[in-house]
């Protein structure tokens, strides 16, 4: 979107604390929020909002024709279609993450997965609902990755594609079954994609970039790549970034900041955390161990 998502402006108006926010390359927005003791009037935003409670929320009430409805708690979700107006009485602390998307995002996913253009696609309203698959996507990916480090943007892109696909399948009037994905990439496709990855490890590699190299939709590429490589695109790219980092640590005296940037990490801190998680030691320890052998 060329303008900010309306829900963000609305919550800021009611003094909600925005903890983090980002707009992904495909225009999808995400924001992390904290609020307490507020009466919030949401007035017909022109986009859809998926909200997941991450902490507290037990005293979150929605105004209905029959009175105030309560049902919030961690991992409960609210799916609010565009033009949905609501009034919320927040009587205690609540932490939540919003996922903002449009009709165009839903249509793009439907065309990518089902190879058909949907007509009259509409999304359902859900309040205080449970969905273990959405909770897993949020907590394992959207909440467990850096929203601003280029090394994690591929994983975020993949997770949002999975999330939108799930929403289209289970929360819209679109009822076609996805086309089956059989087999992996052709050898020339796999080689081309791997070559592209190795040549662009310092860049912000997106799932859409890799899918375009293979001339496939993001949905089908991700599944076919995993069948061929044994790893998801994000896992493979991270593996190659860390392999390059190890080579640079052993064979050069470049600073950790420089190595981080050359391997696609936007900060040495994030690079060190990822390296230690994968290798069991920090980059500095790895270099020192190699030197003293």
Description:
- The chain is of the alpha+beta class and 293 residues long.
- It has three domains: 6-170, Jelly Rolls, CATH 2.60.120.10; 180-230, Arc Repressor Mutant, subunit A (Orthogonal Bundle); 236-291, Homeodomain-like (Arc Repressor Mutant, subunit A), CATH 1.10.10.60.
- Helix content is 45%, strand content 22%.
- It contains eleven helices and eight strands.
- It has helices at residues 6-13, 103-114, 132-142, 150-171, 187-199, 207-214, 218-229, 233-251, 256-262, 268-279, 283-291, and strands at 17-23, 29-42, 48-56, 60-64, 67-70, 77-80, 86-101, 126-129.
- Strands 1, 2, 3, 4, 5, 6, 7 and 8 form an eight-stranded antiparallel β-sheet that branches.
- The longest helix is centred in the middle third of the chain and has 22 residues, at 150-171.
- The mean pLDDT is 92.
- One of its GO terms (molecular function) is DNA-binding transcription factor activity.
- Residues 191-289 form the HTH araC/xylS-type domain.
What is the CATH topology classification name of the largest domain?
A: Jelly Rolls
Strand residue content: 15-25%
Largest sheet: 8 strands, antiparallel
CATH superfamily of the largest domain: Jelly Rolls
End-to-end CA span: 54 Å
Pfam families: HTH_18
Organism: Vibrio gazogenes DSM 21264 = NBRC 103151
InterPro entries: AraC_XylS_family_regulators, Homeodomain-like_sf, HTH_AraC, HTH_AraC-typ_CS, Tscrpt_reg_AraC-type_HTH
Keywords: DNA-binding, Transcription, Transcription regulation
